[in-house]
Amino acid sequence: MGKVCVFFGTGYEEIEALTVVDLLRREDIPVDMVSVMGEETVVSSHGIGVKMDCLLEDVDFGDVDMIVLPGGMPGTVNLEACGPLMEQVDAFYRAGKNIAAICAAPSILGHRGMLKGKKACSYPSFEDHLEGAEVTQNPVEVSDHIITGRGMGCAVDFGLAIVGKLRGKEQAAVLAGNVIYKHYER
Fold first, then answer.
1. What confidence category does residue 182 fall into, taking pLDDT thresholds of 50, 70 and 90?
2. In the annotation, is 103 catalytic?
3. Does 186 have pLDDT greater than 70?
4. What domains lie within the chain, and their CATH numbers?
5. Quick one: which of 155, 162, 159 has its CA closest to 99?
6. In principle, which of 4, 48, 113, 179 could form an S-S bond with 66, CB 3.0–4.6 Å?
């Protein structure tokens, strides 16, 4: 298995980003926190600076199995404004490789036409950006190789859905039990 890359732009939502990293590392799934800002430390929407594992320009996308886009503002705007990252998102979509986005970030996928005919969810004020999707209010949606999540309160569901995609639903359920999370049903 290759690795998962979680991309951080200034103003990211820390719970959405770091919950995914935490759950994947508990499962020994290789995951890198990647700055798209050209700086080693990226500051969240609530002023929390986190040191990244690497910069975008250091990523070998041939070794990456999944791209994860956390939400937050202006984190989502900063991710979408990053041309090299968007080129990789497009390439992953064309290749049928896994892409996950939560909160405001599913809007990026909607803007790129990647949600047409798929179930998807996002933060409520971004639902109109999920162009062509069957929009739900579920905590998380898995539709083919795309995973979307609603927001910070759904971060554990979102992270467990990613684990489920990579390691199977049974292992995700075991992890949910290990972290005393009782609401996981996927």
1. confident
2. yes
3. no
4. 3-178 (3.40.50.880)
5. 162
6. 4
Question: What tokens were used for 102?
Answer: 């939560």
pLDDT at 5: 98
Distance CA(129)–CA(135), nearest Å, equals 10
Q: Tell me which of 5, 82, 103, 154 is the catalytic residue.
A: 103
Spatial CB neighbours of 177, under 8 Å, sequence gap ≥ 6: none
Q: Looking at this protein, which amino acid is placed at residue 98?
A: N
Q: Global pTM?
A: 0.96
Q: For residue 185, is pLDDT > 80?
A: no
Q: Please, are residues 74 and 130 in contact by the beta-carbon 8 Å criterion? A: no
Is-contact 65 97, C-beta < 8 A? yes
Q: What angle do CA 75, 173, 25 make, to 5 degrees?
A: 50
Contact between 71 and 104 (Cβ < 8 Å): yes
**Burial of residue 75 (number of CB atoms within 10 Å: 0-12, 13-18, 19+):** buried
CA angle 117, 67, 137 (to 5 degrees): 45
Cβ atoms of 34 and 56 closer than 8 Å = yes
Q: Dmax over Cα atoms in the chain, in whole Å?
A: 39
Six-digit token pair at 164?
Answer: 């489920």
